[in-house]
Amino acid sequence: MKFYIETVGCQLNVLDSELAAAALISAGWERLATRKDADLILFNTCSVREHAEEKIYSALGRLKHWKTQKPGSIIAVMGCMAQKDKNVVFQRAPYVDIVIGPGKLDQLVELVNRAVATGEPQLAVSLDRFERRDLPRETRASFRQFDPIRLPETRPRVFQAMVRIMFGCDKFCSYCVVPSARGPEQCRSPRAILEEARTLAEQGCLEITLLGQTVNSYRYVENGKTTRLADLLEMIDQVPGIRRVRFVSSYPTDMSDDLLAAVRDLPSSTPYLHVPAQHGDSGVLQRMRRRYTVEEYKELVDRIYETIPGAAITSDFIVGFCGETEEEFQKTVDLVRYARFKNSFIFKYSERPGNEAAKLYEDDVPEEVKKRRNNELLAVQNEISGEENRRFLGQTVEILVEGPSKREARSVAQEETLYAECETLDAPEDAPRGDGLTSVDALVATGRSNDAQLTGRTACDRIVVFNGPTSLTGTFQRVRVVETSPFTLFGELVE
Ligand code: SF4
User: Measured by CB atoms within 10 angstroms of the end CB, which terminus of the chain is less buried, N or C?
Assistant: First the structure.
């Protein structure tokens, strides 16, 4: 039996897909690069934007025919949309076999087996934490941890891996679906995290990204001893083979001084911090239920740059949030200029029915105004990214080589049509392409492994493009920067 996974959304979803694939492979399933010959198609979904959900529903619509042509085939919908929509998925696409929330992934293989054996629809979702406020314990228990074994072949690059250190979120920002879709905040034990880091190192992993919705809120108490993120970084720093550790995403008010000192002092910690500000006006931040003012955010930015010289800070922003005036929007522009972010991920506000913002405020900023503000903020951010990158001109930087650049991989793919059916919906830039073939495989297949345009990343997460043999993939190299753009450093290998 063969399966294919399509992933939409954030890095947590990318990791869930990797773990789901590992669980299925361990149960004897084979992963496919395309959906063509699959017996099981899984959609790992996102609910953050309406657009992402609609794309999934139309992708499901396109599968109706496939399902009738292939009796016995299974369609599974997992991820945040599965948890949020529950039975609605079956109503909108009655030929779907499995709907499984992120808190129930430990039952995935069992549900697949049951669906295959019975042909009956299977639903596994956690309790709704807003409907069942009277059952906090049961709700928490219904969002179960999912830590199957790590298989190197399920990662796009063996030498890079994500490690989840916590589940869920308790911040309740008014616009966000995550606290209901992924449940209450629950931290994994330091022992389990450390064990996983060691396993990954044994598999050849050099770089680990620790994941959590508010990763710097990590706190685990056992036998009277509290472990925080700074302690975890110190523990992972001792794991032989792990050369780089970063963590995403941080919540501004939980960025303690000891954590910043750990990032500065530990050899494996990297000076890259993703700390979403979301807005530059304190009134809007209050409506968003963020727990800080813009002054406090600026103070944090100052503290980061003072503690970690050369730190790269990145942020998320929402433009066009309910009631956002032109003056309030300009304060976001001011914040971007003040903080000099390496880059920002900018989103137009998308109302999500049922969450606090939708209940309390009107989504009253016209679409064209949202679009204009999005473009204006992006232009300012690009100008700053360009200026910050220019400071690297002439410098020699150490990079971890990730493989052929996208342009190179694309041209090879066109030549070989290796990726003809690799359709990604709205995957993040770095999401695995789900085709089971790395770009290096593709280049080797076409005999072009000695002269490729490669990319790598600096410790501060800047992308570097240079020419070199693909055999450098997965090694650390020194590159002299000879040209820059707002998004990329271009360099030459240093002998
Ligand atoms: S911190 Fe806010 S935006 Fe981030 S996941 Fe939690 S509720 Fe959502």
Answer: C
